[in-house]
Design a protein that fits this description.
Largest sheet: 8 strands, mixed
Number of strands: 10
Structural class: alpha/beta
Distance between the termini: 23 Å
Order of helices and strands: EEHHEEEHEHEHEHHEE
Radius of gyration: 18 Å
Oligomer: single chain
Number of helices: 7
């Protein structure tokens, strides 16, 4: 949902966070890093906003949860030349290597489902390039990330969706050792901008960029759901 392009961080939720920051007293530089590093910093450093973190029982007590900003539909993608007719989650356990983001909620979730054929990587772009080169058998991705990757690198259109897996919700989260007053500023900003004209402009901008229907409801974005 958030990517670095030509040295600048961009993405629908990046724009969202910049909008909320304009309503708080905490204008800080936005950085992008491998998810495992983001999680480590968020757990240790006060006054750190993470966007976007998927909420799960393991993380529940580690952050202040501001609100859901994106519904993400997960699905497996494979190279278009792959001969597979898998229609159940269990079938994908037969593959040799499935690319996932290191320490990402999708990796945690697949492990909880008994997968032991995961290939963790630091960035989604790495996973896509390895899948394109047929060095992975599949990648578990999200619909918003996939739409962005296709918009930026047309060669990834050779990677096709084969199975819908799950829907998860990404939140804005603030490190637990942050002062409650700071967390409240972000919560107030989130509540203030729900359905605002400024947020609708962000919706329209990214709907055009991604060439996909992007809805907005109670401050949460969602792409049109995949069809299986």
């Amino acid at each position: 949902m958030n990517f670095e392009r030509h040295g600048k961080v961009e993405g629908v939720i990046t724009d969202y966070v910049r909008l909320l920051a304009s309503h708080t007293q905490h204008q800080q530089e936005i950085e992008i890093a491998p998810w495992a590093r983001v999680l480590e910093v968020g757990l240790q450093r006060p006054n750190t906003l993470i966007f976007s973190a998927e909420r799960n029982p393991q993380r529940e007590r580690s952050f202040h949860w501001i609100g859901p900003v994106m519904a993400k539909h997960w699905y497996f993608i494979v190279h278009q030349d792959t001969d597979t007719s898998f229609h159940q989650l269990e079938h994908f356990k037969q593959l040799e290597d499935i690319g996932v983001l290191r320490a990402d909620n999708r990796e945690t979730w697949l492990k909880s489902q008994g997968f032991n054929n995961l290939y963790p990587l630091n960035t989604l772009e790495q996973a896509y390039k390895m899948l394109l080169a047929k060095r992975l058998d599949a990648v578990l991705t999200g619909d918003i990330e996939h739409a962005y990757m296709l918009a930026q690198q047309p060669e990834f259109k050779r990677l096709v969706k084969v199975h819908y897996v799950n829907t998860a919700y990404s939140y804005l989260a603030i490190s637990k050792n942050t002062a409650p007053s700071v967390a409240k500023q972000w919560q107030d900003a989130f509540n203030h901008f729900k359905g605002s004209p400024e947020l609708i402009k962000i919706q329209q901008k990214w709907q055009h960029k991604l060439t996909r229907d992007l809805t907005l409801h109670e401050g949460m974005f969602e792409l049109s759901k995949p069809k299986d």
